[in-house]
Amino acid sequence: MGTQNNAPDGWAGVLDGARRGALDGLRIADFSRVLAGPYATMLLADLGADVVKVERPGIGDDTRAWHPPADHDGTSTYFLSVNRNKRSVVLDLTTEAGREQARALVAESDVLVENFRPGTMERLGLGHKELRALHPELIYCSISGFGSGEGAAIPGYDLLVQAVGGLMSVTGNADGEPVKAGVALVDVITGLHASLGVLAALRHRDATGQGQLVEVNLLGSLLSALVNQASAFAVAGVVPGRLGNAHPSIAPYETFPTADRPIALAVGNDRQFAALAEVVGDPGLALDDRFRTNTDRVAHRGELRDILTERLGAAGADHWSGALLAAGVPAGPVNALDEAFAFAERLGLPGIVDIPAAAADGAGGRPSRQVANPITLSETPARYLLPPPCLGQHTAEILPRLSDHATEREGAIT
């Protein structure tokens, strides 16, 4: 069952001198592709898990071909974003030999993660029931778009889920069309839920010795992530609409134009509003009956916006951000990504990390720039040991062992 508390096969040189990860000794058979599953397994790999990524011959993960943009070797930056710290093995699951090798990989793993369309793994003989009979301690994590019931046949694409799941209905200007988030946010949220579910199942297995099935789906993850908007409907029957960058329950809590570029104001209480009024040179706003409390400000949002727009037009976003933050008012310019990373660096927060070629496992590894794992652990921090793998980079290392295991299993059955 899985690996013990030692370095994964082939990692000895990589781990020399490295601090232990929180998930050292955990092996994950990763049959997932695109985003939700790979994001989940990358987070777990950063924390020490040995993730073996199973890919199709000649094609691999779909996102390998999703470019532009690409790095200097022509690899999609989309693929690179969610596949570090993994080893890649090519298995042909359309053949019995490939499926036997897959079962051999699962037999030595603690966790399996997959996001095929529901029913696919069962048709391949790799479904939860079959594998659990062979490996009762296995944690089997299945990620789908719309669950394994009535929605099993619906393709699980992020844009589709943002549309039918209600996110687009609350995103965009009130007089404009519904708008999707600028990234595949539902996939990311689902990946987070998947990794949390895996960790909870592992905790249960530690206590009982029993594995279990973990199921997450994009639609359910989105409905949960809609939080206050979903609660407005569930509790009060309110169906929220689009407010642009404004907030349905707080004001001012949106972006405003300035003399050069937009600024975001996130005024969460009356004290902050009084400070805002002082900084923009109109302290009487805090005493105005229209704006005295947050409820008042929400009711008179349009009037307040007009006043603040005029005041903020007197200077640029950086000026107002500095003055407002100094007064305790949450404010900041709308940054582009280069500015966002620079801002994080100035604050001493994790931003971009470099994985040098020397940190790779000697099988054609290359340097890679990566966005840092946001989880900070004082004793077992995230590690960046392996760049995202080339397709099948570790097949020669892993396949002989799997083939031997598969042969042994066939002999035991006969």
From TrEMBL:
Name of the molecule in the record: CoA transferase
Ranges annotated as spanning the membrane: none
GO molecular function, one term: CoA-transferase activity
UniProt keyword terms in alphabetical order: Transferase
Pfam families: CoA_transf_3 (PF02515)
InterPro entries xrefs: CoA-transferase_III_domain, CoA-Trfase_fam_III, CoA-Trfase_III_dom3_sf, CoA-Trfase_III_dom_1_sf
